[in-house]
Amino acid sequence: MSDVVPDRERFEDASHVLHGPAGSTAWRQLLYVLYVVAILTGLYGFTVTRAVVEVYGPGWRAAGATGPVAAGGAVLVVVALVLAHLVGRRRGPVTPDPAWVDLVVASSVDRALTLRESWLVPWLTLLVAGGLVGGVGGAALVGGGATGPLALPVGLVGGLLVGAGLAGSWLAGQVAADPAGAPRRGPAAVAGVLRTRATLRGLGVEGLRAHSLRAARIGGATFTADTRSLRLEVAAPVRRGRGRHLRPHGRRGTVLARDLLGLRRQPLLAVGGALLVAPGAAATGWVVAAHPPVAVAVLGVLGLQLGAGVVAEGLRLHGDTLGAPRLLGGSVRGQALAHTGTPALLLLLLGAPVAAVTAGALAGPVAAAGAVLAVVGVAVVVLAGLWLASFRGQPPMSAFGAGNGASTLLAWWAWPRVVAVTAGAVVLVRLARLGAGEAGPLSVAVVVVVLAVLVPVADGALTRAAAAHRG
Amino acid sequence: MTGTLVEALEAAKDVDGAVLLPPTSFAAQPGTCVVLRGPNGAGKTTLLRLVAGLTAPTAGTVTLDGVVADERDAATRDAVAALVGPPATYRDLTLRDHLTLVDATWGRDPATCDERVHAALDRWGVTHLDERFPHELSSGQAHLFHLSLTWFRPARLLVLDEPEQRLDDSRRLLLGRLVRERCAEGTTVVMACHDPAVTEAVADAVVDLPDAT
């Protein structure tokens, strides 16, 4: 009877049945991973970061970049906290195995006990990760001679706090979306997360099962490179704006209208895209006006790339459905061009004005005009990168094998963005130097060659993807 | 619109030695319905995928009007409307939005789009679901939606994989009637079916596939 046998004893019995006398190995595996990561971070992360501080630090200080970079870091932390909350609504941190949910969590044993390990593993992971990033960053600033020794404890404590904050925000998202409990917002949600035992007891079995199954499907989709399933699992179901109707505007116009309607029904995507494109464009304007370190150009193009990618759902779905029985009329290329309209509009209607205003404020109207041209040039690269990502097809078979499979898969996921960001940064820096009269025909040639190579490669990716599926 | 002449000649498919479809021949004349029957694993879906040009036979041929069926060929894509597994739908579009998109991309008159969309939903009895998103449908409703999408695009050949699945008795009768209507309009229909009543109602010819295992 449950009132005779203590909860802890029943919990340990269940753990013994499922895991054997050694119990769960999750902790030992986690601690080993953290141990290895801590050593590697200390050895390589600190060394590389300190070298970066030593090499680029003086230049950044001279260019007045310290303040904006610090502000950018603070904004990133806030964005990460918000994202963690949003992610938690779909896939929270507490995701024990489905069998554990059904057989143990669903029993009368204290839920704070049965869910403790599932919560502490992600919590500790984020805590240690935050501490490592903050500690290494602070130590690198001290070691690189950029600041006094106080930066080390500040960085360490700050990193730990950010890690704990991310874990808490993630859990708060899961709690907020749990069908068993009344949603809590604002201070009530924060207070709830601080009382973790009570919070864990408040999680319902239905929500836990849903999060657990979704976590398994997300993992499966990631490791099989099933991009469509992955997006469907991560994305929240759309329910708003059903009263707005798609109207016919011709073959391509209707496809573009579809994408815009999708954004109206998921305004978070539009806002997220804008929040990424705006700082990216501001950085672009800064590069054109004041020629800060190259890292600013890289970060600026990365912002433009990520922001445009957020609103390119139509393009990705087009890539997913190549080779499936056809429902839509028109050519494959025509539809791809129409789907490119949404990210292009975001880059040109938001990115170009922001870049122009930034450059104009820093260096006058000529720089503003140059910034608009720079955004157009980078936009071509960014859009080509979106085509590469959307139409990259399947990863090589070696990505699913032992040995180098994981690194191959990671490279397959990352290469379109790496190519686009690298090429975009090259184009941006060269255009900025041209605008300043600091470069000649070589820069023109570099920009032309990058665009002349990348655009046909992206178009070729579509052609190959459209023909590759027939086995 | 004239239907497509479908001819499969000793068409077979195997993957790494596993036989998915033994050599099979049949022909479907324009404006007729051919039903494929056979036990699970006989290769019905594989044969439908060959007919739709989604995959290539490892032996034999499948032609549409004398041309090899190949989904990469625009002529095949324009001719074939296939429901072989659930189609990819947009999670952010309602049912009526999907049909509007299909309608517009096939270049139909925008002025009369709403009437066609309404008629298409009404044909399958899902008009009342027009403002739902696909994830808000039951499995049966989703199947009716997929049928309405497949029916809505212009086609000279309909390829359907067990379209009677998840339909109640009245909807199976409706399916039989609508297949016959399409055939009367000239469309060729090739479909796999396990329901004897539906087969009886729609088939001009039946192809029995032996157990491939």
TrEMBL record, chain A:
Keyword Iron-sulfur: no
TM segment ranges: 30-53, 65-87, 120-144, 150-172, 268-288, 294-315, 336-362, 368-389, 410-432, 444-462
Statement: the UniProt record of this protein carries the keyword Membrane: yes
Tree of life domain: Bacteria
Coiled-coil annotated residue ranges, if any: none
Keywords: Membrane, Transmembrane, Transmembrane helix
Name of the protein described by the UniProt record: ABC transporter permease
Lineage: Bacteria, Bacillati, Actinomycetota, Actinomycetes, Micrococcales
From TrEMBL, chain B:
GO molecular function, one term: ATP binding
One matching Pfam family: ABC_tran
InterPro entries documented for this protein: AAA+_ATPase, ABC_transporter-like_ATP-bd, P-loop_NTPase
Source superkingdom: Bacteria
Keywords recorded for this protein, A-Z: ATP-binding, Nucleotide-binding
Domain ABC transporter: 6-213
Protein's recorded name: ATP-binding cassette domain-containing protein
